[in-house]
Design a protein that fits this description.
This protein has 15 helices and six strands. With 392 residues, it is mostly helical. Among the domains are: 159 residues, no CATH class; 56 residues, Herpes Virus-1 (2-Layer Sandwich). The protein has a three-stranded antiparallel sheet with strand order 1-2-3. Strands 5-4-6 form a three-stranded antiparallel sheet, with no helix packed on it. α5 runs antiparallel to α6. The longest helix has 32 residues.
Length: 392
Amino acid sequence: MTFARLAKQLAAHRRAAGFVALISTFAGVALIIDRPKGSILEWLAIPLLLGGGGTFAWVTWPASNGAWEAPSGLASQFLRVITWHGRLVKLFPVIGAGIILADLEYNAFVSATPALQTEDIIVLLAAVVLIGYAFVPARFARGRDFVLTFFIVLNGILVVPLLLARAYYSDFEQSVDLYSWVALAPETSAVLNLLGVSNTVHSVPGATAPGLTFTPRNLPAPVTLVITTACSGIYSFGIFASAFVAFVLTEQEKLSPRVWVFLGLGLLGAYMANVLRMTVIVLVGYYTDTAQTDLQNMLLAHSYLGWIIFLAWTSLFWWALVRFLPTRAPNTSESTPAPLSRGAICAVCNRSLSPVVPAMRCACGSYSHRACMMDSTRCPSCGRLGMLASSA
C-alpha cells in the first residue's frame, strides 16, 4: 500500500485512526517512563511515540479555513483559574526552566540517587511543556491544554505524593513501594487464594517492597516474588489515569452524572486490571515453571504479558470512552451551516442542489442531499461523522 493510499484510508476513517494513534502514543509514553529492561519492548517506545503522536496530531489538526473558538472545557477553565486568567502564561518559560534547575539541584545535593529516575523524567517533561506552552498557536489551544493538564495530573499522582512522603519521613530514599503494600500485594494474594494458589505476603530483609511467596506446582521449594516499584504497575496506572482525566476535562464543560460514572469506572477498572496483571504473572510461574526453566516463564510474563494485559485494558476502555462519552458540541461556526452556493453539487449523486430539496453539509464544506444520506452519516468527501442539517 502506497503512502498516498494509506493517507486516503486514514482520512476516510479519522475516528478509528485517532483511536489507534491515541493508544500507540500511550504505549510509547508508558514504555519510556516504565521501560521493561532486558526485553525488546523497550525498543518500541520511540516508534510508537513518534508514529502514534504524529498520526494523532494529523487526525486532530484543526482546519486552516475554519473559524477558531477558544476552548471552553473544564481543563481550559481550570488552567484559566490557576494562571490568573492567563496572566501567568507569559511566565511559563521561566517557571519551566526553574523546575529543570530545581530538579537537577535536588538530584545533585539532596537525593540519595543523583541519576535521573522515572520521577525526574516526569518532572522534566512537564517543564518542557511549560516552556513550549506559550509558543503553541491559539488554534491548537485544545490540544495544548490537554497536554498540560495531563502532566499536571501525572505529577500529582506519581511525583507530589512521593516528595511529601520523603519530606514527612525525612528519608530521601523512600520509594512508592507503599502502593504495593497497600493496594496491590494483599489484593493479588486474595485473588490467588480464591484460585487455589496458596501464598503469603510478608516483608523481605533488605527491601522496602513486599514479597509474595508461593510454591509452583512443578518445583519442590517455595519462591518469593518481590513486588518492587518496577513490578507494581504504578507508572502505567498513573499514565492511564492522567490521560483519562485530561481527556474528560478537555472534552466536557461540566461534570455530569454520566461523566462521574466514566471517571469512576475508568480509575477502578485500571486498578483492577493492574491486580489482574500481577495475578497472571504469578499464575504463569505457578503452572508452567520447572527446575529446567528456573522461573524464566514468570520473568517473561512480567516483561511482556503484564504490559500487554494493561495495554489491552486501556484500548478497551478508551474505545468505550470515545464511543459512548458525549463530547462537546462543535463551535457555532460549524453548527450553523452556510447557505448553499449556486451550482453546488451533491457529493453522493453528483446532481445539482436546490434550496427546496433538503440537504446536509459537512464541516469540510461539501453538501449532500438528505435523501442520499439516508443510510449513512459519514461525509462521502472527507469521511467525517455527523454531517449537519442545512435548510438552505
